Structures are given as structure tokens and as C-alpha cells.
Amino acid sequence: MLRRNPGLKLLALAAAVSLWYSVTKTERDAERIIELPVSLRKIPDGLTVTNPPTKAVSVTLRGPRAILDNVDERKSRLLVNLASLQLGDNRVDLNGTMMNPDLPRSLKAIRFEPPSLTLLADRLAMRRLPVRADLAGAPALGYTVAESTVAPDMVEVTGPARMLAELKQVTTEPIELRGASATVERNVLLDRPDQALTFVPDVVRVTVTLEEAVAAREFPGVPIQVPAEVKGVVPPTVDLTVRGSQRLLHNLKLEPEAVHLAASDLKPGKHTVDVVVDLPKGLTLLACTPPQVTVRVGGGR
């Protein structure tokens, strides 16, 4: 049987050897790149890292493909032990022993990108700083901010000593006032300018009190309402300046009889008469120009 079809048998043997070599070669040389976040561990008391890693590290793994495919990068990370951390710059070379969970024995971490981390350590400090409410947006038309209060108005801030030395106050996250027409009261998180900072407490109560905005508006050339017996008035109009709530002034239209004369039953002739201005409640007359006018009654001169 061995002598039958020797060429075909040799071809089949060669194909089998080629397939075996291809499979074993692929299994042995397979590579996979995974992205792992970095977690810092065992930072010495009194020290803090001012530039903790925020980007994932690219790790190239090599080993059998079937085992590589079972590595779940969503459940893995690099644990960096900083027990020997010192003030200033610290270089940490990355390696496979930092991977958590541990790699299977048949896999190796052959490349890290970046291959090392440079971590800056500073002394850990604490200060009490005032809190300022960050108000965003404009209240409803005619309203303005009268006062904003924060409780508590001081918080404990812990972080790198150099950073705290430059920090004068802490601000809240933006509080939207757009369209508001009544007191705004809510709990707000404090805004962290750097992840190395922590606050106690990290939430404050902000109360923003609104009041109606007061403004002045000019009304030029307002006609004077005169009784029928008055044949002439000089000048026939006055210029008014009115003060009051911006909400009321915005759409204010004076009534035809709003400006009139202070006297009635005048005798024929010329008279100097005061001008009277009637305004809606809540508004104040700042100026009336002129405050008096000359009127002619009947046929008098």
C-alpha cells in the first residue's frame, strides 16, 4: 500500500506539514494591542501626584491567538506602585508585572506606548478658601441679581502645595439664571480646576435673590391734553423722563390724557399753568420739560 500512488501520498504529506506549520506559526507569533488605564497605588502620606495619567497606555501582547482573544481589556488596568515616590520628577518604567489581572503564562507584554511615565510629586497641603457662585445667563426681562449667597461659604481644599498657594477662591459649577424671575435656590457641585484637588464638602447650597431692575426712559414730544375753552398752548408738547421698573417701562405707552393742565375754569386771557403728568403705579416722574406752559383762553390777549 505504501508503494501505491507515491506522488499523491507525498503531496498529501507536504500539505499536512504545511498546514501544521502555518497553524503553529500563527499561534506562536500572534499579537494584539489593548488600551489599559493607569491606576496609581500606595502614594506615600503627605505627597500627591500633580499630573496623574489621564490617557490609556497601549500594550502589545504576544502569544497564542486563542488565548489572546480571551483577554478582556475592559476589566484590565495597569497598577503603578508609588511606594518609593519622591518630591519632584519621578520616572516609572512600565512592564507586564503591573497588569491586573495577571497575564496567562503563555502571553507576554512585549511593548508599551508610552514605555514610561514621568510623574511630578508635590507636598500635600490643605487650605480653607471662600466659595463664589458662578452665575450664568440673564434673568427675565426687567429683573436683575440683587444678591447671591453660598452655604457654606468656606470649604477645605486639599491638593498640591504649589497649586494651593496660587488659589484664591473656589467657584461653583455654572448656575443657569436664563429667564428666571424669582429666587433661585439649589445644591451645586464645586468646580475642580484640576483633578489633583479635593473639596470638603464638594456640594454647596446657592441662593440667588432677584429684584426688578430700575431704569429711566425718555418720552419726547408728548402732547398736552387741554380743555375745550383753551384756544392755544405754548409749547403744545413736553419732554418727560420717567423712572421705574424696567419691566413696566419696556412696553409703556402713555394714555392721551396722561399729560394735562393743573388749572380749570380759567378766565379769558393768557395764563401760565403747571403741567400735570399722571403715571401708572410704580413709576416716578424725574423731569418734565418745560414744567409750565402758556395758555390762551377765549378771546383774551
The biggest beta sheet is recorded as:
6 strands, mixed
Cα distance spanning the termini: 151 Å
Computed Rg: 42 Å
Structural class: mainly beta
**Low-confidence region ranges:** none
Shape: elongated
Structure description:
- By secondary structure, this protein is mainly beta.
- Helix content is 13%, strand content 48%.
- It has 4 helices and 24 strands.
- The strands form 7 sheets. Strands 3, 6, 9, 12, 13 and 16 form a 6-stranded mixed sheet that branches. Strands 19-24-22-21 form a 4-stranded antiparallel sheet, with no helix packed on it. It has a 3-stranded antiparallel sheet with strand order 1-4-8, with no helix packed on it.
- The N and C termini lie far apart (151 Å).
- The model has no long low-confidence stretch (mean pLDDT 90).
Map the helices and strands.
Elements: H1 6-29, E1 31-36, E2 38-41, E3 47-49, E4 57-62, H2 65-68, E5 77-81, E6 88-93, E7 99-100, E8 108-113, E9 116-132, E10 135-136, E11 143-151, E12 154-160, H3 161-166, E13 170-171, E14 175-176, E15 184-189, E16 198-200, E17 203-212, E18 214-223, E19 230-234, E20 237-245, H4 246-250, E21 259-261, E22 269-277, E23 283-289, E24 292-297
Parallel strand pairs: 2-5, 9-13, 10-14
Antiparallel strand pairs: 1-4, 3-9, 4-8, 5-7, 6-9, 9-12, 11-17, 12-16, 15-17, 18-20, 19-24, 20-23, 21-22, 22-24
